[in-house]
Structure formats: structure tokens, C-alpha cells
Amino acid sequence: MSQNNYLIDKRVILDCERMTLSCAGESITISESERSLLIAFHEGLFKKDDLINYVWGRKGVVVSDASYYKLINQLRGSFDKIGLKGHLL
Known about the structure:
Layout (H helix, E strand, L loop, with lengths): L4 E4 L3 E4 L4 E4 L2 E4 L2 H11 L5 H8 L9 H17 L8
InterPro entries: Sig_transdc_resp-reg_C-effctor, WH-like_DNA-bd_sf
Organism: Salmonella enterica I
Protein name: Transmembrane regulator
């Protein structure tokens, strides 16, 4: 597996270069923020403030909690599109 790829839950491939999520032959394009959020999870970040800082704060962007929750829901929708239960997040 490429250095730009992450294996999630032994079945989902996150391709950071192509910005795609793939599982069981299904593949979708995700946003840069979704990609950053998944990488943050992979690096062991789970607290809301840590995730907000990782996804947006490093770029100097200040966001509200609403943006955080919107991104979580967006990522859940992406998981649904490739046949996974989005509520796993």
C-alpha cells in the first residue's frame, strides 16, 4: 500500500493523493476536510477541539462547532455511499 494510502477498519482504503474512499469495489471522491479528519482519526485524535485544530486550525481557519458537526455528518454520508454504516463515526 502506498505511503499516501491508509487502510481503515481492514476494508476501507483512503487514497490521500486521489482524495478517494474505496470499499468492496465502490469508490467516491471526498473533500480535503474529510480526508484531514480521517487522517486525524488515524493519528489517534478523537477530542473535538483536537480535531478542529487538526482540520482547520493548522490553516489558520477559525470555525464554529457547527462546521465540525457538519463535517462529521458529511463524512458519515460518504461512508454510506460506499456501503458502510455512517453511524460508525
